[in-house]
Amino acid sequence: MPLYEFTCRKCGHVFEELLSLADVQAGKVACPACKSKAVDKGFSSFATSGGDGGHVHGGGCGRGGFS
Ligand SMILES: [Zn+2]
Pick from 18, 22, 21: which is nearest to 3 by CA? Predict the structure, then answer.
Protein backbone atom coordinates (compact mmCIF):
# COMPACT_ATOMS: atom_id res chain seq x y z
CA MET A 1 0.00 0.00 0.00
CA PRO A 2 1.33 3.40 -0.84
CA LEU A 3 2.01 6.02 1.75
CA TYR A 4 0.27 9.27 1.00
CA GLU A 5 0.99 12.61 2.48
CA PHE A 6 -1.87 14.97 3.13
CA THR A 7 -2.12 18.60 4.00
CA CYS A 8 -5.26 19.81 5.70
CA ARG A 9 -6.75 22.82 4.00
CA LYS A 10 -8.53 23.87 7.12
CA CYS A 11 -5.83 23.86 9.78
CA GLY A 12 -2.71 23.24 7.74
CA HIS A 13 -1.83 20.04 9.54
CA VAL A 14 0.41 17.71 7.53
CA PHE A 15 0.03 13.99 8.06
CA GLU A 16 0.69 10.70 6.37
CA GLU A 17 -1.68 7.82 5.85
CA LEU A 18 -1.13 4.34 4.52
CA LEU A 19 -4.12 3.83 2.27
CA SER A 20 -5.19 2.31 -0.98
CA LEU A 21 -5.96 4.69 -3.78
CA ALA A 22 -9.58 3.58 -3.63
CA ASP A 23 -9.82 4.77 -0.04
CA VAL A 24 -8.29 8.07 -0.96
CA GLN A 25 -10.61 8.57 -3.90
CA ALA A 26 -13.60 7.59 -1.80
CA GLY A 27 -12.81 10.51 0.48
CA LYS A 28 -12.09 8.43 3.54
CA VAL A 29 -9.27 10.64 4.60
CA ALA A 30 -9.81 13.12 7.39
CA CYS A 31 -7.42 15.37 9.22
CA PRO A 32 -6.52 13.82 12.59
CA ALA A 33 -6.24 17.24 14.13
CA CYS A 34 -9.54 18.87 13.18
CA LYS A 35 -11.42 16.00 11.47
CA SER A 36 -11.86 18.01 8.32
CA LYS A 37 -12.04 16.09 5.08
CA ALA A 38 -10.78 19.03 3.10
CA VAL A 39 -7.30 17.66 2.61
CA ASP A 40 -4.86 17.91 -0.24
CA LYS A 41 -3.24 14.68 -1.28
CA GLY A 42 0.40 14.36 -2.02
CA PHE A 43 2.39 11.25 -2.65
CA SER A 44 5.55 10.95 -0.67
CA SER A 45 7.47 9.00 -3.26
CA PHE A 46 7.16 11.64 -5.92
CA ALA A 47 7.69 15.34 -5.95
CA THR A 48 4.82 15.98 -8.29
CA SER A 49 2.19 18.30 -6.95
CA GLY A 50 0.01 18.69 -10.00
CA GLY A 51 -1.77 15.37 -10.27
CA ASP A 52 -1.80 13.38 -13.49
CA GLY A 53 0.57 15.31 -15.61
CA GLY A 54 2.56 12.65 -17.37
CA HIS A 55 5.75 13.99 -15.90
CA VAL A 56 8.17 11.22 -16.66
CA HIS A 57 11.14 13.23 -17.72
CA GLY A 58 14.45 12.45 -16.15
CA GLY A 59 16.38 15.66 -16.27
CA GLY A 60 14.68 18.43 -14.48
CA CYS A 61 15.24 21.81 -15.98
CA GLY A 62 18.02 24.07 -15.01
CA ARG A 63 19.58 21.98 -12.28
CA GLY A 64 23.32 21.97 -12.32
CA GLY A 65 23.26 23.66 -15.68
CA PHE A 66 26.42 25.62 -15.25
CA SER A 67 27.61 26.16 -18.75
ZN1 LIG B 1 -7.06 19.89 10.01
Answer: 18
What is the CA(29)–ligand 1 centre distance, in A?
A: 11
Average pLDDT, stretch 6-10? 95
Question: pLDDT (tens digit, 9 = 90+) per residue, 24-53?
Answer: 888 889 999 999 999 998 765 554 455 555
Alpha carbon dihedral 22, 44, 6, 24, in 10-degree steps, equals: 0
Rounded distance from Cα 10 to ligand 1 centre (Å): 5
C-alpha to C-alpha distance for 27 and 16, rounded to whole angstroms? 15
